[in-house]
Amino acid sequence: MEWTDIILFTLGGRPVLLIDLVSSILGLTCVFLAGRNSKYNFWVGYLYTAALFFLFWNKSLYASLLLQPISLAINIMGHWRWTHPREEEQSSADAKSLKVSMLSWPERALAIAGVLIVAFLWGWTLDSLFPSDPHPYLDSCVTVMILLAQLLSALKKWDCWIVWLLVNISQIALHLSVGNVFMPIVCSLYLINGIWSLYSWMKLYRKKQ
């Protein structure tokens, strides 16, 4: 038996694997550190991406697996941006740190349009290639929003937490719809952290930090 197949316990009649718990802990740690404006979230993010790779491979979720290189690239880019800001982007508390900023309304409109278009195309692809997926369009929309949230977080945009909240709510509904019990609990913790981080980053934005 491989370590990714180790069952720790059952919840709601479904097994919770070691890889499920490891990836959940790494993911929660990553967003917790990001919400507290810590650059160390990226180091945890590298481990989280690796854990997700094994998780999706173990569950044969190849569509999600193929997106992990994109997540890794965003993480690397964000690590660089947070620690190498341009002069006008420097935090008032630390010149070597990127300050929190916001998207303009036109940028927000463009982001929403982009999510809808890409999610529709990705959903259509999933429906064609993986007809067993019960919710291809919702699944694709959540996936695209995750990538958008990661990108906005990498650019240290306050708006990333709005997207994360939408992701968390959607994921809770998605997991409950297929009878999963463990992941809605994890997503609820993400949701709580997202609400707190939304407030915390607003304070940083006002202080130009």
Tell me the series of helices and strands, N- to C-terminal: EEHHHHHHHH
Beta-strand residue percentage: under 5%
**Amount of helix:** 55-70%
> What's the structural domain tally?
1
Shape: globular
The helix tally amounts to 8
Largest sheet: 2 strands, antiparallel
Ends: how far apart? 48 Å
Unreliable runs, pLDDT <50, ≥5 residues? none
Compute the number of strand runs: 2
Class from helix and strand fractions? mainly alpha
* Overall residue-averaged pLDDT value: 89
| Strand order across the largest sheet | 1-2
Mind telling me the C-alpha Rg? 18 Å
Overall description:
The longest helix has 25 residues. α1 runs parallel beside α8. This protein is mainly alpha-helical and 209 residues long. The protein is built from eight helices and two strands. It is globular.
Summarize this, please?
This protein is mainly alpha-helical.
